[in-house]
Structures are given as structure tokens and as C-alpha cells.
Amino acid sequence: KAVILWAYDPPERDARLANEALKAKNKEGTKQLQVIVEIACASSPHHLQAVRQAYCSLFDCSLEEDIASTVYLPLRKLLVGLVSSYRYDKELVESNLANSEAEKLHESIKRKQLDHDDLVFILSTRNLYQLRATFNCYQQNYGTPIKQDIKSCGNGDLESLLKVVICCIESPEKHFAKVIGDSIIGLGTDEDSLTRAVVCRAELDMMKIRGEYFNTFKTNLDGAVADDTSGDYKDFLMTLLGARI
Fold first, then answer.
1. Which has fewest Cβ within 10 Å: 16, 19, 63, 69?
2. Percent helix, strand, coil in the chain (nearest 5)?
3. Whole-angstrom Cα distance, residue 79 to residue 64?
């Protein structure tokens, strides 16, 4: 399965992963849907556009249509907004806008209106550099990180998914380090999550993921993956990680 996933062209790979997540019969909270967030928020705008085109070609409908028909509100509203976006991909930040939108986000979160139009609009339209500046303003102005305030709203699916959105925007490498850690730490191995993280990020930011993994879990990524896998599967993942086998 890992080899087949690796063999796909990246947009087709992500389109198939998105479809698999949406068609899953047992959606464990937001675990399956975070795949959609990763594609929308941890990739370039050009890649997201290519994924949407591949999805239409493969499944004879749009990614937005499938989200609308399989995901319930308010998650549907957020996900459709994220996958429909086409963000500016250069580093452009307006400080005044960051301050004003930090205030709008704070108002929505304070009122526990996490599906508010302002919140969805900001997260799904602004470029990643602008959003990071907005999150920094949020913490400076209100004293706590935005993720922490979202967490204080509750432990529902929308809160969980929004935390993934924020993490993928702030630091994709930190998000994928956590995905890998969660997949191998504890009883058993979540091979689907481990495979997805390693295969999809091998050529993008694996070196940064290594650093974040060590910072978070205080252990070496290669050793952790090797200890939890075996045989050809282990060798293949080690090759993608760039480790010696």
C-alpha cells in the first residue's frame, strides 16, 4: 500500500486520500477529516488546485460536492471553505489587517461561535504568512495562543478540526511530526497515518519534521519508526526518511 501510494503523482495521491477519507464508514471523530485539512492548509495553493482537478477526473464530481454530501454541519462549512480557496502564495503581510482580523477571531471564539462567517472567511482566504501574522497578533493582544482559546471552547469535532487547521497553517512540520508520533506511540501502529505522513512529506519537508519530532518527543525519528515497523515496510519507510538501512 505504501509503495502504491508513493507511485502516484502527488495530486492524484492526495485526491485518492481525500476520497478515501470522505468515504470511510467509520469516521473516528475528525481523524479521517484531518486529511482534507492537510491537503488544504499544509500544501501550496497550486497543489490544492491540482488536487481538485485530479479529484474531478478520478471521481466524476468535485471535492466540494463530496464534502457537502458526506460531512455534516458545521464541519462541512469549514472544509468547503478551505478546499475552495486559492491563496496568494507570496510573502505578503498587512499588519493592520492582522490586528483587525485577530480581533474578529477573538470575538468569534469568545462567543463560542466557531462556525462564524468571519472565522471561516479569514481561515480560508488569507495567505499563510498573513494568517501566521494574525495568530501572532492574537497571542500578543489577548495573552494566549489561538489554539488554547479554541480548546477552551470544548472538545467537540469542530474544535478538534480547527486546532488541526491552525497547526497546519502555523507549522506543517510540527503537525506531521505529531501525526507520526501518534501513529507509533502506544499500543499498536496506525499504519495508514504513518504511511500517509512519510510518503506525502518525504520530498517536501522531512528534514524539518525530523527536527520537530525530536523537539516534541525527545527521540530520533528514524529510530522510532524503525522500532515500530518491520520487514520490507520498515525498509521502504526508512528509505523515504533518508535513513541508513
1. 69
2. 70, 0, 30
3. 8
Residue 80's identity, in one-letter code, is V
How does residue 155 score in pLDDT terms, banded at 50, 70 and 90?
A: confident
Q: Which of 215, 217, 207, 209 has the alpha carbon at shortest distance from 181?
A: 217
pLDDT on residue 115: 86
Q: What is the DSSP string of 179-237?
A: HHHHHHSSSS--HHHHHHHHHHHTTTTHHHHHHHHHHHHSS-HHHHHHHH--HHHHHHH
Tens digits of residue pLDDT in 32-60: 999 999 999 999 999 999 999 999 999 99
- Grid cell, residue 124, equals 480560508
CA distance 104 to 82: 18
Cβ burial of 9 (10 Å; 0-12, 13-18, 19+) is exposed
SS (H, E, C) 71-123: CCCCHHHHHHHHHHCCCCCCCCCCHHHHHHHHHHHHHHHHCCCCCCHHHHHHH
